[in-house]
Structure formats: structure tokens, C-alpha cells
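Q: Can someone sanity-check these two? First one:
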Amino acid sequence: MTRGFASDNNAGAHPEVVEAVARANTGHTRAYGDDPWTASAVARLREHLGERAEPFFVFGGTGANVLGLQAVMRPHEAVICSEFAHINVDECGAPERYVGCKLLGIASADGKLTPELVRARISGVGIEHHVQPRVVSVSQSTEYGTVYAPDELRALADLAHAHGMLLHVDGARLANAAASLGVPLRAITADAGVDVLSFGGTKNGLLGGEAVVFFDPAPARNFRFVRKQGMQLASKMRFVAAQFEALLTDELWLRSARHANAMARRLEAAVRGIPGVRVTQPVAANAVFATLPAEAIPVAQDAFFFYVWDERRSEVRWMASWDTTAEDVDQFAAAIARAVASPR
């Protein structure tokens, strides 16, 4: 199947990850994470995120986000997030159903929150008629492909903590953000004051696996029960853990993220000169957002599948992956140019 630009979820698993799973597929070991692969992967995560990090492996990103929030919230509390946030748009109401919380979405042109935007949503504190703000949640990189610098995260963490709140990061593309910023993973997590992290692996070359990471031992203490009750405890945990061990060895996470980011920048450069195409957001990670004539979109999708982000604006999203090639990018840009020049 042709490599497309719809999602980094569409890419296969990195060969180094597949090899790691195959190596783990020997003999018997204890189930549910009581195995040497899980212990090693936890140690690797702490090397990158700090010794205070308490990681727990789960299957998917929605599970990581929802259970991470559930561990630190009660049903009468609220999450302040971007209106574009994955928890707000693409998780089918899972936070509301399983946590019982309310999501307070904030509009922003680039998908990022600022202390000023968040401060305006902190209200009704101590009043029993209103939900109580408990968590500020941001995506890194954002659903719009933009990236929070360490000082931006620290400012949000400081604001949250000053109001007795916590900072949660949906890090489905955390590696792409760190690669874009040229900083270690802990610079945009532990060192920036993050309290709860969903650390993504699936979008960066894993077969399937994410981690919920706490930087405070209190919510971590009972999370193994939350994970089990939330149906996210893998019996054959070694196969999830082996993937993370591979991802965090020899900078595979960074190599893959850097490549995906570079392919997105190559695509941006290739389409900027096409009449009728306008790139709408700075390309910081591995996403390119652009508008083009509505009639050209289905023509281009016939050649390479991708998603429409905003039908009203004819805005589309193009995602590069760890396995996107320069040839893929050049062929796709040529298909966009043909579609714009000769729509049906």
C-alpha cells in the first residue's frame, strides 16, 4: 500500500521495534509486568524523564489520557484544555464517561494554551454549584502541529499549581516536540513542572503502546488498580515493554521523530510555491496544515489519502511519519500541484 499523509498511525512498526518484540518472544515469563523487559523499560524511561518518574504501560493513547486523568480527579472536577484537544474532540466522550469530569474547551488560533487563556477559565472555585477546575491539559505537540517551549509549559504549570491544580500533557507526539525543540524529553516534562504525562509510542514507530507517567508518587500509588479496572493492563506486558525499551535505546525515539519532522518541513517547502495552496500553521513537528481549493481536495486524495481538518475553510492536515521518504514527499507535492491546476 502506498505510504500516505493521513496519519502517523498509518505507518507500520519500526524494524528495530519488531526485532525487539521477536527477541522477547522466547520461553515463559511472569505476566502483568512482573518481568525483566518491563523492569528494563521502566529504567529506560527514568533515564529520560528523571528518577521521580513513575511509568505504567498501557495499550493506547485514549486509555493513557483517560486513566491518567482519572487517577487525579473526581467527577465534580473539570479539565481546562484547548477546544482542539484530543480528549475534547477525538475520544468519543471517554473522559466524560469514565472520569465523570467536565471539559472546559478554550479557543486558540494555534491550538496552544497560555496562562492568560487558562486564567480566564478558572472560576467558581469553592462554589458548590459549579464544577471545580482541577487539571490543565495540553497536547505536545498540539493537534495543530504547534509546539510548547519549556518556558511555556513551566508558565502553565506554575499557574496551575498556584491554583491547586495539576498540569497534564497528552504526549502522543512528545518525541516530535522534543526533536523540534532540540531538548531532552525531561526538559518538556519533569523539568517543566508536568504532573501527569501520556507518553506516546504508537505514532513514533511502535506496534502499539503508550505509558502513563506520574511525577508525584501519590497518584502513582494506586494507579495499578486504576489501570486494571480501566481494562488497560496487558497480561503479556513484556511485548509492550520490549517496544519501549527499543524506542529508548540508541535514540530510536529521536531518530524517528527527527526524520518525520524533516519530511514535514520538506513537504511545507514543496507546497508553498503552488498557487492556491496556503500553509496555515508554522511547521514545528511532523504536521503540515494548509488550505487549497475545495474542488482539488478529492482529486489529491485519490492519489494520496489524507484528512480534511476544517471543511468550512478547505483546510487539510498532512502528517509525515518515521518511514516517510523524500520520494513520497516529492510525489505527493506533485499530486497536489496537479490537483490544484486541474480539478475535476
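And here is the second, same format, sequence then C-alpha cells:
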Amino acid sequence: MKTIFRKTAFSLILLFLFLGLVFPAFFAFSQEDCKTVKECEALWEELQKEIQKLETQIAKTEQEKITRENQINVLRSRIYQLELQIRQSNVMIKDLNYQIADTEIAIENTNSKIQDFRKRLAEILRTVYEKDQKFLIEILLTEDTLSNFFDDLFALENLNLKTQELLEDIKTLKKELEGQKEKLEEEKEDLAQTIKVRTLQKQESELMKQKQESLLRMTEAQYQAYLREKKELEKRAAEIMQRITQLTLPGLAVPRNPKELYELAKWAGQAAGGVRPALILGLLEVESALGVNVGQCNCASKSVCRHPELSYKKVMSPRQWPAFEKITKELGLDPYTTPVSCYVNGGRVQMGGAMGPAQFMPTTWLNLGYKQRVERITGVKPANPWRARDAFLAAALYLADFGAAKQTTTAEKGAVTAYLCGSPTMTYRCRLAGGLWYTSTVMKKAAQWQQWINQGI
């Protein structure tokens, strides 16, 4: 056991040394290693590569665990079967011992009968001999008649023959009993040999099982080490992503080059199921000037902030607060200094609190599943409404949900109206919130973008 423990400990030491050599990022990366968005993104991408490598190792190690567990189960079953066979053989040997003992008693009884018959034969023979030695005159004087003498002699000889026959039968029985005993002893010897073989097989299986269990423990330790490292790397990646978020707020590094903007919108539209890039660009231009203006409230720490005195609890509906606090906490942001949109006319026309370039409301982003859908498509967690890629994709998904992927004017207008008012129908309340102007302006901007796209930007 001590040897196994030393081997396991040594293996774990080698494992951690191996991880330190193969995955230096695990020991080297920290949030302080990057000062710019570009540096942080490079570190984040490197971490993602290391996480993918670890995931491959985890999957491989998990399969090794399953294989070893299966082997242990097979050996455990084999040991159990051997134990049953050994137990059964011992029961059979016990039964044979009883049979042998009974046979020995029968042989002893037969020997006694043989001795008795031999004595009787000896007496008969002595009597016959004595009668044979009598002289005729003695026979005439002692026997009533001569015929009686010969009758007795004939009877004695007849008894002698029958006794000899019985004696032969008993001898034959004894021989048969001795043969049966010999056969039983041979059978007992064979069973004893079988028990020895199966006992050795059981011992060998137990040694193999112990070896596999030891390897399984080592594999499990390695598996847990990989999981711990993956968790640590994911934590580091999340820290770096928070650093990126902090460095990129409020503009979120939205591309300023029209061609790059088009490529980003094109990717988002395709990922959402076929929304026109021009419509996405027109929408986001109206919403946030393509990420230049993501909100002028709740932004006391920012260089440009029109209303630092208006906190998120002032401009948002109270039902939005928990979602906003959860989002900022997950991203490592201060909920009191992260910019959001202001309300309109003190909230009487429209409440504020919209986030990022796509101006998603916190509950829409978090509770209606857009965060999860963005994460599923990009593979990056947590999704960030202030990040350009996530914001463009979320906007495209929302438009697609209200029919924009049909790419007809009616469908696109309805989707744009829903983006502002939550419904493709131009209701009275939507009109008060500026729905007609909003839809018209977005469609005009989209038309301009489409013209530039057709011209090759």
C-alpha cells in the first residue's frame, strides 16, 4: 500500500510539472499582464486554446476512467464467480467425505461378515472332517441308521457350498465397495486440485483488480487535476474578459471602418438566420450611433456623461434593477458607474436603462434568453451587451424573432417597430414613444447602408 501511495504521489508531482510545462499560461497569466484591449484579447484567446486542450484531456481521461471501471467490474464479477465455484467444490468435497466414510463403514461391516462366514466354514469343514474320520463300525454303533449318517454328511457339504457362495458374494461386494471408495477419493482429489487452481485464479484476479483500482485512483487524481486547472483557467479568462469590458466601456470597440461594420453585421445577420446587414446597421445607428453613445445616465466615472446624477435606480423601472445588478456583477462592473440610456420625459413617455450598442433592456437581455443564445452561438461566456460582437448578434436575433429574416419591407418594418415597442403593431402607446419616427428613420438608414453595400462600400 505504501508503494502504491508513493507511486501515486510521484505521479501527481510529475503531472503538475507537466502541466506547468505544457500549459505555462496557467501559471503566468494574470489580469495585470494586459494594459490594452488588444493585449487582453490576445491573452484571452490563448487561454481559450489552453482550455480547449484541457477539455480534450478531460474527455480522454474520463474515457480511461470508464474503461478501468469496466475492467474492475469484470474482475469483480470473475472473483465472485470463482468464490462461488470454490464454495461449491468445498461443499461437494464435504459430501464426498461423508460418502467415503459411509463406504468405509460398509467395507468394515463386510469384512466382519467375511470373518463370520470363514468361521462358519471352518466349523463346517471340521465337522465334515470328523465325520469322514469315523470308522464304519463306529458309525453303525453311534448312528441310528447308516442313511442318517450320509444325510447329515450331504447336508453339511451342501451347507458348505452355499456358505462358500455367500462368502464369494460378500467378497465381491467388498471389492465393489473398495472400488467405489477409490473412485470417491479420486473425485475428491480432482475437486481439491480444482479448488487450488481456482484459488490461484482468484488471487490473480484480485491482484489485477487491485492494480486497476490503483490506476483508477491515479486516473481520477489526474482527472480532478485537469478539472481544477480548467476551472482556474476559466476564472482567469473571465477576469481578463472583465478587464476587456472595463477597457472598452462605453464604446466597446465597435468598428469605425464601414467595411468592418458591414462584415460584423453580415456575420450577425447570418448567425441569426438571414437578417439583412443593412437593417442591423441602420437600427444600431439610430439606437447608439453604432456604439458611440451607449447612454448618458449612471455614468459618473466616464469623461463624457450628461447626467451623472441620474443613477440606474432613477432611470430604470424597479423590475429592471435585479437583472441589471446581476449582469454587471457577472461582468465585474460597477452598477453605479456603468452607462445606460436615460428616460424620456422623466419616464412618462419611456423609461431608460438600455445597455450597450444594441440598447437592450436588462430583463430582455437576461430573462428572455438573448444572453444564453448569444453565448451558444459565440461560445464565449459570459455574453456582454456592451461588447460589439455580442450586441450586433443580439440585435439580429431580436429582429429575426419578429420576422426580419423574411427580408420583406413589411416584415422588416414590423421587426423594427417591435425593437422599440415590443410588438410589431404600431399601437397608440408606441406612437407616443416615437414609434413612427423611429421605424421610418431606421428604414431610411438601412436603405442608405444597403446602397453603400451595393456599391461595394
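A (reply): Looked at the second one. Residues 146-248 form the longest helix (103 residues). The chain has two domains: 2-247, 254-294+323-330+350-454.
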